[in-house]
Amino acid sequence: MSISDSTVELKLLADPTRARILSLILDSSGGRRLVGSLAAELGLRQPTVSYHVKALLAEGLLRRDPEGRQVWYSIPPDHVDRIAEMLQGKRPVPVTDAVLRRIAADLTTRFAGTFGPETVDRYVRECRTLLAERAGAARHLPSLTAQFAAERLSALAKEGLPPAGRVPEVLFVCVQNAGRSQLAAGILRHLAGDRVRVRTAGSAPADAVRSVIVTALDEIGVSLGGEFPKPLTDEVVRAADVVVTMGCGDACPVYPGRRYLDWDLDDPVGLPLPQVRGIRNDIEARVRELLASLVGDPGNPLANQ
């Protein structure tokens, strides 16, 4: 598919009626609908729906399948995944009370003996509220809510553990939690494995990790590992042995007994990949020094790109 084809599709899907028509067809049990049924569900006249259907047909986003006196409309099989992906951002996944109870029940099982159901439920609902404030999180809000709540509960559980034999924890904090902190966290996880627990947060988190950051990590063999921007919360700071801040000012609370580092790094927002590589390499050098101070083993250098 060419860039121009993609642009046409985006323009078509920007029309709420056309996007809704495709959504209804995607969600139908047989993957196809009649114009009459679409009109009834949309509350529109059939000629109006037919007009939008013809526009989608003209761009190949719909297929026309006559059966006797009826004409069914479906999405061509080779377009289904792409259209579903494009529509997903327009259709926030609902997080009903039943979904929240399910998440809380699962996490209660996971943290059995550490936290009671009431505590887990409170954290789950608070995490859902915090993430729902960011438009980008709506796309996978149920799973991100579960992941965010699990991280916060894990950090909270650490407070009661004795220092001896505990895996050191590092928290990377930047403004959007979509660039510098994700680069640092990805590289440290890659080098340290299970020897260090790594967390990230942002003072004003973005909707998603920037694609150039994913590319900069991927080209040196480092995975983002399902990370996503998340707000800074008190328990992750208290759980950290080392807190590394990157341009977030005084947003991070200070607790005694923690090691605080402030790394003066350029912000990769809006920068091309060659400049982001330079920031990545600077971060990698700092991460190796930090890892050596924590476990005494800097590892083998990754080849600079």
From TrEMBL:
- Tell me the keywords, alphabetical order: Arsenical resistance
Q: Which domain of life is it from?
A: Bacteria
Pfam (any one): HTH_20
Question: What are this entry's molecular-function GO terms?
Answer: DNA-binding transcription factor activity
Biological process GO terms, please?
A: response to arsenic-containing substance
Q: Tell me where in this chain the HTH arsR-type domain is found.
A: 1-95
List the protein's name.
Metalloregulator ArsR/SmtB family transcription factor
Native source species: Arthrobacter crusticola
